[in-house]
Amino acid sequence: MGFSFFASRAAARFLEDIRRPAGVSTAALLLTAASGGGIVAYADSSRAEEAPEPPPRKKKVVVLGTGWAGTSFLKNLDSSRYEVKVISPRNYFAFTPLLPSVTCGTVEARSVVEPIRRMFEKKGKDVAYYEAECLKIDPTKKAVHCRSAVGTNLDGNGDFMLDYDYLVVALGAAVNTFNTPGVMEHCHFLKEVEDAQKIRKSVIDCFERASIPNISEEEKRKILHFVIIGGGPTGVEFAAELHDFLVEDLVKLYPAIEQFVKITIIQSGEHILNTFDQRIAVFAESKFQRDGIELSTGFRVIKVSDDSITVKCKSSGVETLVPYGMAIWSAGIGTRPVITDFMNQVGRANDVPWQLMNG
Amino acid sequence: MGFSFFASRAAARFLEDIRRPAGVSTAALLLTAASGGGIVAYADSSRAEEAPEPPPRKKKVVVLGTGWAGTSFLKNLDSSRYEVKVISPRNYFAFTPLLPSVTCGTVEARSVVEPIRRMFEKKGKDVAYYEAECLKIDPTKKAVHCRSAVGTNLDGNGDFMLDYDYLVVALGAAVNTFNTPGVMEHCHFLKEVEDAQKIRKSVIDCFERASIPNISEEEKRKILHFVIIGGGPTGVEFAAELHDFLVEDLVKLYPAIEQFVKITIIQSGEHILNTFDQRIAVFAESKFQRDGIELSTGFRVIKVSDDSITVKCKSSGVETLVPYGMAIWSAGIGTRPVITDFMNQVGRANDVPWQLMNG
Lengths: 359, 359
Description:
Two copies of one chain form a homodimer. Chain A is α/β, with parallel strands linked by helices. The first copy, chain A, has two domains: about 1-175 and about 335-359, FAD/NAD(P)-binding domain, CATH 3.50.50; about 185-330, FAD/NAD(P)-binding domain, CATH 3.50.50.100. Chain A has helices at about 1-20, 70-75, 100-105, 115-125, 185, 195-210, 215-225, 235-255, 280-290, 335-350, and strands spanning about 30-35, 40, 60-65, 80-90, 90-95, 115, 125-140, 145-150, 160-165, 165-170, 175, 225-230, 260-265, 295, 300-305, 310-315, 320-325, 325-330, 335, 355-359. A six-stranded mixed sheet of chain A has the order 9-8-7-4-3-10. In chain A, strands 14-13-12-18 form a four-stranded parallel sheet. A three-stranded mixed sheet of chain A has the order 2-1-20, with helices on one face. The longest helix of chain A has 21 residues, at about 235-255. The radius of gyration of chain A is 24 Å and the shape is elongated. Chain A starts with a helix and ends with a strand. Mean pLDDT of chain A is about 85; it is low at about 1-40 and about 350-359. The interface of A and B includes residues 110, 117 and 254 of A.
């Protein structure tokens, strides 16, 4: 996986830096944006405060995120030498490549997650974990502003700050809708375990909705049209899982509406899986055609409403309405606002050297 | 189980009735309220419309509910002889005695449910199922008003009516808070699979909340105080499961806050499990005392706020505030409004003979 590779490089670089003799100040910020969203960074802006005698206390390492990058980094860190604090709104690591299988019940959600505290306990790591979200990174004060993800109703003390000597930013990527209207409101995503569980429920809901009395054939066709926007690995894997789920399980339970079921992949490029070797794309496309999965390549999604998707043919410019029952957006990822904000600060302040590694 | 026993009696009676020669009108309404909530009823008000020649069409049987009573009834019904329609907002049967184990992850939610359509498919039943809620029973028109439980946004056609010759009402019971203020808003219940999943999440959330920085010891004690209101079988089984979950799993993952964890059962009677043989109650009480589970017997809950429960000592009349982190209400069940409404109608109209069997 690209993730762990980059995370490990970041970790190695970090360890190399902090093993320098005391007093030799380190001042580095490393940002790794792996494809798929792993972002690793560490910052040390202590150059200005260089002291002849280093304080005897352990250096504070704060890690933001418990995904691929964060957990890989922690695996290689000797937690006895640092005061380590981990912040993440999820108290587990999720094995994301299996999320498409969770959507269709092939794999149980519980099987793809590992509680982060259990990971620490197993490895004997002395690490403090807080279930919270990082709202803001303050590189000047060397502190992160956090908010508890588990309720702030207790005397309003859900907010807290943690200061750091080293900061590892491994927050992953956010969904990027490219500001396409309606996507955030009406589409499912497939980045988190909860997303996969919601998709599973939504697929079954579509079958139940289409089974209610007084539904016209046209409506049944609409409700049972599953649309995947984006023909990258996530969308393609989901399409394949969904196809098997429909063919092997659901049509047996809903035989009366089998004929109305359809899966479509909308892809703006000319081929699905276009970042892979063309033979893979050709194989997947012919397999999907045999399975009856429709490929709408060369179409760009320009709007999503509650029951239809407006697509534009890239060659002809003609716009068409695609009625749908459930839609998944797997067409883009982007940078989280807290990271954008942090990078702007670092760029503006210009007092912290930084380096961007884009995998 | 009381449920299946009563359901089977209802089914037997039903089958006996409908096996009478055609033309001999049946007019019976049977209501079985088994302890725990199974309600089975069937109604046939066709006496007034007696016809010399019965229509050749199959008689319509509508079953409301897919719990113990509804599924037991369906198991014994020859679906080839009737036009059978089943209405329930849950498209699965849940093995409710295992719900306390689901709250603590001992048993996976998926293991205690069976999709109702799969049950029909396995048994070769020709039965139509609609995922919907019954809003109103109209015994005069012999029809049920239903609303789709899977979204009504499709041209507002979520509502529909089904007419019946025989109606089986197996809706189960609702939670009864005895109008205690705050219970509905702040307490968890343990009647549905979703309840069990929410409880599991809530227990872990309490541990995460108590681990956030800047929480006083008093607050930690409050957050980690798990209160069970009602010392019947559900409450007692949940207390035992929760105790094992805390002792065997959670304290290993949250060693720093182990000392603040407490479980309390509030019971208005003098003993827990007071519907059982006293030796069982004594055994459970002494086991709980050894385990450090506090029993507050002889206390009535009079109010629940977001962080404390007001209890009144039944002997002294003194009121006390009990701070808590999570509370479960397992102190009472009652009749669903749609059933109350139906029984009132039947009582008022007085044109349908009815019989109430209370197990």
